[in-house]
Amino acid sequence: MRTHAFCLLTLLLAPVFAQDPTVTLKVDATDAPRRVFHVQMKMAAKPGSLTLLYPKWIPGEHMPVGPITNLVGLKITAAGQPVAWKRDSANMFAFHVDVPPGATALDIAFDYISTSDPNLFTSSGSSTTSELAVLNWNQTLLYPQGSDPDSMRYQATLQVPSGWRYGTALPIARESGNLVEFQPASLTTLVDSPISTGMHYRTIDLGNDGGTPHYIHIAADSEHALDASPDTIAHWKNVVAETGALFGSRHYRGYHFLLTLSDYTVRIGIEHHESSDDRNYERTLIDPVLLKADAILLPHEMTHSWNGKFRRPAGLATGGYDAPMQGDLLWVYEGLTNYLGEVLAARSGLWSAADYRDSLAITAAQLDRESGRTWRPLEDTAVAAQLLYEAPNEFSEYRRSVDYYPEGSLIWLETDVLIRSLSHGTKSLNDFCRSFHGGPGGAPALKPYNFDDLVAALNAVQPYDWAGFFQKRLRSTDSHAPLGGITGGGWKLVYNSTPSDLWKALEQENKWTDFSFSIGLKVKDDGTIVDVAWNGPSAKANVTPGTKLIAVNSRQFDITSLREAVQQTATSAMPLDLLIKTGEYYKTYRIEYRGGERFPHLERDDSAPDLISVISAPLAKK
Ligand SMILES: [Zn+2]
């Protein structure tokens, strides 16, 4: 209703608008199998100088990764006459044009080349194969500098390859053959509403909650890969029910998971208000190991509809795509989402309670041995997010990575456990989620917050020195990770020689074997040493990341022989010698280590109540 009133007022006050201010955007995706999208735009314009921007800071990416290098073939005309453009010499995302006298509109045409690089992010990395494509509208549009993305309107049409089906949260006006015409939408909604399309495609209804529909649209590189089991579908429906039970209301008109399954696109997800763009390996739904390894993707991205989209740190709510974002509260935006995504994986049945504990054990152990903790406080990993997302793997323990995700799981578990303990079981973080992220619900909305708002909301649930609690954990340079949630939750971190099922699943998914807690390195099947723990036994022997393991104790390397050699260190006095190739040189490194293989687990501690099992139990009434 407010939108209609605003439009009427605008028309009354601004009768000088001679042309429709709605931008026409036509995207021809029929060449998607060869990674090319053809774009045509028509935009009202007045004579004089105009600057057109390509989206740079993409919501949810937390860094300036708009794929500007893949915009090619830019041609601008007015009434059929060419109009020259000039890129700004400082801002690579800005194009200056002089709209000629008498012109009322610009016609803009360009192509977008979708890269084949799977090691980037959803809005910039590989998103097409011969069988499927994901289109993020930020890749295929320009907008006038100074425009308000909430009021700037786009009328989009999309032509998909013949025979391909599609799914999106963007409301559709009409469909004809392989041409889809969407209802006019704000630039904000358009950029928030990607489309997946493909030859092998399946849409599953995940249930209607109080009139709000939920769907999962699966695009895969093969028909077989679409075969989600009835159990998996039931678990996805549980995710919908559990988010309703947790937050109490929903801030979307309908929710659409866009699940893309390919070994050739990026493997990561990105959140939106009314959908999520979730990418994974082709066989994820038909391989129980991959399904376990990636169980948190959908719950994580859906949680963002509340925590990240509706409630967003003020520094990440810039109201556009050209202003730098500030990531200092990413330990809430991503950290709390990481915690809730894992908890929801357990509550929905995608993970067992044991899987959830194994995940906590891995997180706790990895963070507890990070030597970078003594120089870089957690808060700096959030502030420096735009650097760390693209940082290399080498010596990552010393550099630290985007640790506000995993350490967020520990800190928010500790918060949850503290609320439960201080309130003698009458309150929990569920109450905070209901008050902070709930409300009347309905169409997407944005309610920014700052640190003080967060502290006040927690204090309203359970009075405590929350400001001091968070500041201590954010600014600490202590060598150990905060494990108070695990110990207060009735468990303790231990190590033994048997990997958990989740550990094995993560190794298989990552295509490496992880000796981080024994000899201190991760190695691929071909011998490539992916990373070396900074203070571990391998690092002390001067083993370096990026080199190649050739032989173990004089015998040709394979994973099994290395595992057996590490196991034997527990019982044998035999040395462990690794022959390693660095560039064109070979050298043997003697690893001083005795202890066999070591893997983290949680073990029950009866001196405290088992709150972790309470937290991971379903909330929704069946
Ligand atoms: Zn996230």
Describe the structure.
The chain is an alpha+beta fold. Strands 1, 2, 4, 5, 8, 11, 13, 14 and 15 form a nine-stranded mixed β-sheet that branches. A five-stranded mixed β-sheet has the order 17-18-19-21-20, covered by helices on one side. Strand 13 (172-176) and strand 14 form a beta hairpin. The longest helix has 18 residues, at 230-247. It is globular, with a radius of gyration of 26 Å. The two termini are 36 Å apart. 48% of the residues are buried.
Radius of gyration: 26 Å
Shape: globular
| β-strand number | 32
Bound molecules: zinc ion
Give the amount of beta strand, in percent. Answer: 25-35%
Please summarize the sheet with the most strands. Answer: 9 strands, mixed
Helix segment tally: 20
- Give the class from helix and strand content and strand pairing: alpha+beta
Task: Using brief descriptors, characterize the structure shown.
single chain; 622 residues; alpha+beta; nine-stranded mixed sheet; five-stranded mixed sheet; 32 strands; globular; disordered N terminus; binds zinc ion
Please specify the SSE layout and strand pairing.
Elements lengths: L1 H12 L9 E6 L7 E9 L3 E6 L17 E8 L2 E2 L2 E3 L6 E6 L5 E9 L18 E4 L7 E2 L8 E7 L5 E4 L3 E5 L2 E4 L2 E2 H5 L3 E4 L1 E10 L2 E9 L9 H18 L7 E7 L7 E3 L3 E6 L7 H6 L3 H7 L7 E3 L16 H4 L1 H14 L4 H16 L9 H6 L1 H4 L7 H4 L6 H17 L6 H9 L9 E3 L1 H11 L4 H10 L8 H5 L2 E6 L4 H10 L1 E3 L6 E4 L4 E4 L4 H4 L7 E5 L2 E2 L2 H10 L7 E7 L2 E7 L7 E6 L6 H5 L7
Parallel strand pairs: 1-11, 18-19, 19-21, 22-23
Antiparallel strand pairs: 1-2, 2-8, 3-7, 3-10, 4-5, 4-8, 6-7, 9-16, 11-14, 11-15, 12-16, 13-14, 17-18, 20-21, 24-32, 25-26, 26-27, 28-29, 28-30, 30-31
The site of zinc ion has 5 residues, from loops.
